[in-house]
Hints:
It is built from 14 helices and nine strands. It is an alpha+beta fold.
Amino acid sequence: MFGINILQGRDARNQSKRLLEQSKLDCDNMVKTSELEKKEKLLQLQSKFDSENNKVREELRKREQSIERKEESLKQTADDVRKQEKLVETTQRKLSDRIEDVGRKNELYTKLVQQQQNDLQRLTGMSTEEAKKQLMTLLEKELQGELGTVILRHEKRIAEITQQKTQDILLVAMQRYASSQTSESSTSTVDIPNDDMKGRIIGREGRNIRAFEKTSGCDLIIDDTPGVVIVSGFDPVRREIARQSLEKLVIDGRIHPTRIEEIVAATEKQMEGFIRRKGEEAAQEVNIQGLHERTIDMLGRLHFRTSYSQNVLRHSVEVAFLSGMMAEMIGLNPQTARRCGLLHDIGKAADHELEGGHPKIGADLLKRNGENEQVVHAALGHHDQLTTEYPYTLLVATADACSASRPGARRESLERYIKRMEELETIARGFTGVEQAFAIQAGRELRVIVSSKNTDDSVAAKICRDIAKSFEEQLTYPGEIKVTVVRESRFVEVAR
């Protein structure tokens, strides 16, 4: 038992000894490991420091190089500035020398000019002012000649440009307004009772409409417009025949090619009689006798012609009356003047059948029909350069201008003219105290009647001025409109 304890104590001591040795070894290893770690960290720090130090040194080196380059550039600039200063100083010295030289030469020149002027005055016997006047006179004559040449050249160039511009403007205007003008002046409308009639007018496979267009010489336009068929054609007489024939066919109800031919033929005969009657009525109205039958027929055809919405036959009658009155005033034959005035536009009845303008066509027709030279020339020359050898032509041209310029005679459309007159009267009637308003002189004057019971002179004057101001603000018109307010006294204002 005792021996066993001894052995156990020995083993414990041996084990303790081994543990101490192992502990010493572990401590030594730990010390070595820590030293190694310290050395590694020192090496890392040393490397990082060296790297940052190198970067700083590199930046400093670059900055030193940049500063050196800037210093060299400044030195070069300073050298250039010194050179420029030297050059400027040299230039200033040369300029001063030149100024002095020019001054001396100027003085010498002035002396020479003065000496030459004195010599010229002594030789010519004229003073400076007299010489200037003579020189200016010569220059003025030369310049006048050159100026006239320049003016003629520019006038010729401007005339060429103006001619070209005028043609361009007219062509554009004709192109813009051709469609609307043609549509208004070359069509007529026929009312039908119902749309079923359109199918009857067209006929089976279009045989009725083809027969009508072939017989009448006009086109029929049948579209979706309810209750209307349009007759289209440039010849106003044939278009009127076609319109009347179609109206008769619609009323009759029997629409087939044979009936169409019968109706159109009968209408043509009626139209011939109507035209002859219109021509005879016009001749009787102005008391003209002995006209050729062909001339009477052509005169009647003018009933279907318009010029700027003015009926040509009524225009011719007006010109005849005006020409006759003027002829009586100056001692010419009024009968001849009326004859010239009535027949001056006869060419418009055939200008769509023959080539040329209506003056030439009319003169040829009148000459073939046995009219005298004065009547023929009145038709030929009432639009051309007038000559005093034919006084009746001058009278007809004057009467033609009077008839065409009469306010309201020629206008774009009757509706526009009426609308303008109504606008003037409506604006005036809108003022308190106004009883009646009448637009006269084709809308260039307005007569206003105010109530004498509800207004006095001062109120009437204010109404007159307010109406004129309203026209200026609300309407667009050429020229001016004269407003006259009538009460016990009149007050007149002009809207400009």
